[in-house]
Amino acid sequence: MTNKRKADMYDPLSENFKRREFPFYWIAQINALYSQEMERLLKRIGMDVPRWRIIMILKEHSELSISDIASQAVAKLPTTTKIVYRMRDEGLVNLVTSSEDGRVTLVSLTDKGLESLELIRGSVSKLFRRSFEGVSSAEIQRTNVLLSKLFDNLKALSD
C-alpha cells in the first residue's frame, strides 16, 4: 500500500476511511472522558471546568485582560466575561480597569481563588497520572508538539 493510499484511511472523503483511525475521533473521545472526569472532580468543591480553566490561566499569568483569558481558554468573549464577573461575585478574582486603556478590564486571582486552585490540584494530578500511566515523558512531549501543530493549523482557518 502506498503512502498516499495509506493516508486515505484518515480522510473522511476516502472510500478507505476508518472512523477509529481518524485522529479527531480519538481527540473527541479523550476530551469527552476527560471533561466528564473533571466535572466530577470539580463538583466536589463547588467548581466547574470553565472557572477552573480561568483559575489555571490566571495562576500562570497573574493578571490578564478578559479578552486574553478568552483567547487562551479558546472561549467566546461574552461567555468568558460572564464567567469572570460571576467569579468576581464569588470572591475568586479581582477586576480592575487598565490604567493604559480604560476599555480593558484586568483580572487577577484573589486569595480565595488561589485556595480553590489548591483544593483541586491533588485530584487533577491523580487524574493526570492515571491518564498517562505507561506513557513516557518523551511520548507526552511528542504528543504536545503534534497537538500544538494541529491547533495552529485549525486556528489559521479562523484567522
Tell me the layout of helices and strands:
Elements: H1 3-8, H2 23-43, H3 49-61, E1 63-65, H4 66-73, H5 77-89, E2 93-97, E3 105-109, H6 111-131, H7 137-158
Antiparallel strand pairs: 1-3, 2-3
What does this structure look like?
With 159 residues, this protein is mainly alpha-helical. The protein is 65% helix and 8% strand. The chain has helices spanning 3-8, 23-43, 49-61, 66-73, 77-89, 111-131, 137-158, and strands spanning 63-65, 93-97, 105-109. Strand 2 (93-97) and strand 3 form a beta hairpin. 13% of the residues are buried. The mean pLDDT is 91.
- Radius of gyration (CA) equals 19 Å
Largest sheet: 3 strands, antiparallel
* String of helices and strands: HHHEHHEEHH
Q: Tell me the number of strands.
A: 3
Strand content: 5-15%
- The CA-CA distance between the termini, in Å, is 37 Å
Instruction: Extract low-pLDDT stretches.
Output: none
In DSSP terms (H or I, runs of 4 or more residues), the helix count works out at 7
Spatial order of the strands forming the largest sheet: 1-3-2
Structural class: mainly alpha
Tell me, rounded to a whole number, the average pLDDT. 91
Shape call: globular
Give the % helix.
Answer: 55-70%
